[in-house]
Each structure stands twice: as structure tokens, then as C-alpha cells.
TrEMBL record:
Coiled coil: none annotated. The keyword Metal-binding applies. Gene3D superfamilies: 3.30.70.100. Residues 2-65 form the HMA domain. The keyword Membrane does not apply. This is Copper-exporting P-type ATPase. PROSITE patterns: HMA_1, HMA_2. Keywords: Metal-binding. InterPro entries: Heavy-metal-associated_CS, HMA_dom, HMA_dom_sf. It comes from Sporomusa silvacetica DSM 10669. SUPFAM superfamilies: HMA, heavy metal-associated domain.
Length: 66
């Protein structure tokens, strides 16, 4: 399985973390998601595209940092 780390700006609480995790887990091909508020990283396991991750995160109102 491929693992991707995406930096997400704007997350500040467990509610934010939960929204991002739930949205990313809804992408077909994603098998696991873990979000770390301290590092502001979403660690995604699966076979979806980076563009899909970015779209889902930005649709929630957060910013992806490349």
C-alpha cells in the first residue's frame, strides 16, 4: 500500500482532525488515515491521487501546504 503525507494548515482541534480523517477515508482506494494536529499532517494509506486528497481537504476549508 502506498502512504502519502499531506501537510494541512488550519486544523486546530479534534473536531477539525475528525472532519479531515472522515473526509479522506471516504475517498475510494483509501484504507487508513491518521491526522496529527501537532505536525499538521494527514498520513494517508491507499491508492488515490494527491489531487483527490487536496480537493477533499480544501473543500473542508483547510489549506494544503506543499
Amino acid at each position: 500500500m502506498a502512504q502519502t503525507i499531506v501537510k494541512v494548515e488550519g486544523m486546530s482541534c479534534n473536531g477539525c482532525r475528525g472532519k479531515v480523517e472522515k473526509a479522506l477515508q471516504g475517498i475510494p482506494g483509501v484504507t487508513d488515515v491518521s491526522v496529527d494536529l501537532g505536525t499538521k499532517e494527514a498520513i494517508i494509506t491507499g491508492f488515490a491521487s494527491h489531487a483527490e486528497y487536496v480537493k477533499v481537504i480544501e473543500d473542508l476549508g483547510f489549506t494544503v501546504i506543499d
